[in-house]
Specification:
The longest helix has 16 residues. The chain has one domain: TIM Barrel, CATH 3.20.20. It has ten helices and eight strands. Helices cover 43% and strands 16% of the residues. Bound molecules: orotidine-5'-monophosphate. Keywords: Decarboxylase, Lyase, Pyrimidine biosynthesis.
């Protein structure tokens, strides 16, 4: 079975991102390039990391009117990312149009409720109810819109997996027991997320900010 870990390359310097990616590439399954990376390095940066030979997860979290999101999807088409994110809160039509504009080889997945948010944060956005219910509702909407899957925390992935058997489920907010949690609020271990049905495990700082990133990538791999 291939390694489900995608390393989040949330680094401002392209050279540093490339060096880190090259160092750990034997112990991860792919690289996730997010807003920090894409805003700084654009298509050129994606090509540079893709040259290492592992699949690219382009985490742009698109959230706008359907026409604008479809246009953005077309603009990244030639990068042939394995995975792209949109926000489920953008609604059904936006997700449908995003999927229609994506290349055949690209999985489009919808972010449900960010792992940095908890129930109190959710209420402050005007949404009553539990984080769990919000994730389940948006997962159902994403499935109805024809997306390939969703992004959720490890606290909900088992329930989503039961509801959406062949959904492609991406789980960030992962920490080995002894790691500092930083800004993440809904956190589990990589092993638990994997056992509960995650297809992809997103790991960033526990590897990228480790004193020895290669040892940290190996340590994550060893738990799976
Ligand atoms: O879409 C994502 O990847 C994502 C969704 C989410 O709800 N939470 C979340 O942390 N992420 C991303 O996953 C990565 C987590 O990084 P670390 O907390 O450093 O492991 C970051 O690149 C986030 O942008």
């Amino acid at each position: 079975m291939s390694n489900p870990v995608y390393l989040a390359l949330d680094l401002p310097q392209l050279d540093a991102a490339k060096a880190l990616a090259a160092r750990v590439k034997g112990h991860v399954g792919g690289f996730k390039l997010g807003l920090e990376f894409f805003c700084a390095h654009g298509h050129h940066g994606v090509h540079e990391i893709a040259a290492l030979g592992l699949p690219i997860f382009l985490d742009l979290k698109l959230h706008d009117i359907p026409n604008t999101v479809a246009g953005a999807m077309q603009a990244i088409h030639m990068l042939q990312p394995a995975i792209v994110t949109v926000h489920a809160a953008g609604g059904r039509a936006m997700m449908e149009d995003a999927k229609a504009a994506a290349g055949q080889a690209t999985r489009v997945v919808a972010v449900t409720l960010l792992t940095s948010l908890d129930e109190r944060d959710l209420q402050r956005t005007g949404i009553a109810g539990s984080a769990h219910d919000q994730v389940m509702r948006l997962a159902e909407l994403a499935e109805t819109a024809g997306l390939d899957g969703i992004v959720c925390s490890g606290q909900e992935v088992a329930a989503v997996h039961r509801q959406w058997k062949d959904g492609f489920l991406v789980v960030p907010g992962l920490r080995l027991a002894d790691n500092h949690v930083a800004d993440q609020k809904r956190v589990v271990t990589p092993r638990k997320a994997r056992d509960d049905g995650a297809s992809v495990l997103v790991v960033g700082r526990p590897i990228s900010r480790a004193a020895d990133p290669l040892a940290a990538a190996r340590a994550v791999e060893a738990t799976l």
